Amino acid sequence: MADTPIWLVALPLAGALAALLLPRLATAAAIVTGLLTTVAAGVLLFGVATQGALHYEIGGWTAGLGIMLRADGLSTLLLLMTALVVLAASIYASTYFRKTYERARFWPLWLLLWTSLNALLLSGDLFNIYVTLELLGLSAVALASLGGKRAAVEAALRYLLVGLLGSMLFLAGVGLIYAGYGTLDLTVLARVLEPGPVAWPALALMSSGLLLKTALFPLHFWLPPAHASAPAPVSAVLSALVVKAAFYLVLRLWLDVFANVITPASANLLGLLGAGAVLWGSWQALRAERLKLLAAYSTVAQLGYLFLFFPLLLALPAGPDRDLAAGGLAMLALTHGFAKAGLFLAIGIIQQRCGHDTIRELDGTAQHLPATTFAIALAGVALVGLPPSGAFLGKWQLLAGAVDTGQWWWLVVTVAGSLLAAAYIFRVLGHAFGHRPYPNQPVTVAREEWPALLLSAMAALVLGLAGAPVWGLLEIST
Amino acid sequence: MNWDAWLPVLVVASSLLPGLVIFFLREGNHRMRTLLNLTGAVLKLVLVSSMIWGVFHEHVYESRWTLAPGLELVLHADTLSVLFVTLSTVLWLVTTIYAIGYLENAPHRSRFFGFFSLCVSATVGLALAGNLFTFVIFYELLTLATYPLVAHRGTSEAVRGARIYLAYTLGGGMLLLIGTVWLYVLAGPTAFVEGGILGTLPADYHPQLKMIFLLLIVGLGVKAALVPLHGWLPQAMVAPAPVSALLHAVAVVKAGAFGIVRVVYDVYGVNFADQLGLLTGLGIAAAITIVYGSVMALFQDNLKKRLAYSTVSQVSYIALGTAILGPIGTIGGVVHLVHQGIMKITLFFTAGNYAETLGIHKVSEMNGVGRRMPATTLAFSIAALGMIGVPPVAGFVSKWYLGLGAMEAGMAVWVMPVLIASSVLNAAYFLPVLYRAWFREPGTAWPAEHIPAARFETNAALLWPPVVTAMLALATGLFAAAPYSPLEWATLIAHREYGL
Predict the structure, then answer these.
(1) Band of the pLDDT at A64, cuts 50, 70, 90?
(2) Is residue B343 situated within a structural domain?
(3) Pick from A344, A437, A360: nearest CA to A93
(4) pLDDT tens-digit profile of B110-122?
(5) Chain A residues with CB-CB distance to B under 8 A?
(6) What does the domain layout of chain A look like in residue ranges?
(7) What single-letter DSSP state applies at residue B129?
(8) Domain span at residue B369?
(9) How far apart are CA B394 and CA A450, in angstroms?
(10) pLDDT for B170-193, tens place per residue?
(11) What is the C-alpha separation between A134 and A174, in angstroms, rounded?
């Protein structure tokens, strides 16, 4: 039990090596790796739920020299979500990439991405976080460029430059911290950090790097083209997981490590940018002409909601109300991960079956791809935040926090964003119900449609109806 | 969990599970689909009967499920919920039979009946909701389940109507959600308790409580089609007839009205709401809606549109009854929840029959239709007379209690003129239709005769449902004083509410 964290890194890494060395068996290796890693994530969640946060020293070397892995409620939940999303996307990808050379290029990168995601979530000190962040960014760029078209390569190049800039900013902040405090361990830093000329610029540098990577408005410009031109399974993972990894780090830094340093004004600034993201992202999604672009802008908007929680969490006194809000934040992030991955996989199916993803020409999809349409509808319910999705419970806490702290403007933003989301989702579904003779009569392939359907159902039904344990796992109140 | 906890869950599941299975049935599997639908409907009726008996004998049926700390999904059967559940269950059974006949050989029937069952499940869940949080969940689910039904035909008109419906109801749902969250922050979990729970809050909360009331009522008023929030209702007429029937009689419109009743009686408490001065505003909104809907109905030549505006008007009787302080007004409002449902579903069934059998969509095409379709027209006439308030049909009973309640509460000055004006207007838009149907000579040919006259005037599955519901409308009026009649049950509700 205690050494489960290392398996979560070692298994996908071994899978990546296997896929690289045995290209013919790459798909099989990836699926087996996926199953094993998911089991490991489940075991870890069970362990954290029963025994509390886990620590693991690689090779028995203590912190300072060795590498320390840690898993608490939040990171374990994200690890499990990552595992389920990647597994489902892997199953879909096994039908998406049909040619051997495509597979040979795809699987090693894909598993490397997973390795770096898991390592990032398990890292306990700032330098390891920097390394994993860099690995994550590079593998994500390589995957995004797999589309091969000119637009994809251009977008991937911009993605690469933005990612490097973000990492550099982050590293500069890390350097400042090391110069000032002589340690990079998160737990130690949380105790010793004090407001002052070292902590403030360090936080500003690290945060701006991370905000760039998590595409917070107005730093989101690189995201829509990159996510919209990548292959569908890659878009799913980029939108659902990769930007969220950067968000996870912002959350960790602001609420744990730099908790003493944060001022209400800075939290309000994050909230304000979040509000801009919600409104601008939703509006652009409503105006998008292609489904993938709609989904990408929707990611910008959905990340905005997560940032709305910062001013609320800072205003609420430590106690049950704050814990409820923090749980709502986690719930919203988890729901978005599943829903957005499901949505991108469903869009991939439509794109392959119909040869395009232009929204205006989708009439009649519901008749020909009922399971996929249903997946889009379920994902849509979660993105709008309607019951019984997990996002409904998350947004409930967001609204309750806004009312509780008297910050009504966040409530207005949330409601406006939700209505805009309903508008862009039902704009798609309205076309799906329309009658129009359809050129090709597609066949339903279970392996293709089930992953999208299950991911969307996870977001819209399972998290909403059986998600109460999420709050129990967080135990943030300190 | 024992039986008492399982019963409310089973009542919801008896339509939910068949609905989910139906989605996966092949389109041609007509027999299996019908079997599932009818089994679910009959099973629900049996379960609800046992629930009626239990609630009458003050038995507690309740199930709880925690969704998040402090947020519980509660299904709880009390007198008011049982009234609405029974109405939904009976009318669902009848409508299912009607829909099977109506959609014979139409495309996408698995999709239709799947969403149809989800819609009823949401309505029943909403009726059994034990707190405001649960109510909001089912209220939104109802919106989601009805959208595909309104858009079902897939024409650009249908998709447009569905879009307008969605814009209104999601907007209203948001306001309801804000009000509910605000109330939870202020007062904690808001369980529905007879007599209300907010009366004990300190006086400096009162301004906030007034704001919350406004949010809740406007949010609910969208579905209840209170003027000026009624705009979606005439647009949603593009739906197939069984959907319109269900929408107007049980599901959507009634969900809004039921919510208003819940908020006034079981969240605020009618005395406390009156003390805050909230009832007068509600009463005036209801009165305006009643008169406005009736006036608009006068000018509609399209039969379904005329019925739609009539719904706008008639449903507000429920809100009006809620606004009248005192047990008799309460009885009038609550009993109209049932009576309007039975009468309006009859009207929509018969309108569907005219359209399906003879291609008649407009009032001006109805000359002499009573000779060609006597049973349908008889059912239409009974329901129309009931709407006007002619004794002994059910509508008379509602209006009688509303008038009496207004006198008792000292509100007769403005309630009586509204009731009289509305009855005159009802007569003005229904009697000419009856005159045309029975006494005018038919034209040379019907607009489009789809179903020729054989043993019956139309298909049996289309004919019997309106006949049965018309008989029900007559019976609920004639035997209003019988035990377990809607009136007796409404009296029981009023007694428990006022603690008599």
Answers:
(1) low
(2) yes
(3) A344
(4) 889 999 999 999 9
(5) 320, 323-324, 327-328, 331, 366-367, 370, 381, 386-388, 392-393, 396-397, 399-400, 403-404, 411, 415, 418-419, 422-423, 426, 429-430, 433-435, 464-465, 467-468, 471
(6) 263-478
(7) B
(8) 278-500
(9) 51
(10) 999 999 999 999 999 998 888 898
(11) 14
